[in-house]
Amino acid sequence: MRDLPSAISHRPSAIAGRVWKYGDGVNTDVIFPGKYTYTLRDPAEIAAHALEDLDPAFAAQAQPGDIVVAGRNWGNGSSREQAVTCLKYRGIAAVVAKSFARIYYRNGINQGLLLIACPEVVEAAQTGDVIEIDPAGSLIRLDGRGYPFPPLSPTALSIIAAGGLVPHLRRKLGLTSTAVVEIGDC
Question: pTM of the full predicted structure?
Answer without folding.
Answer: 0.86
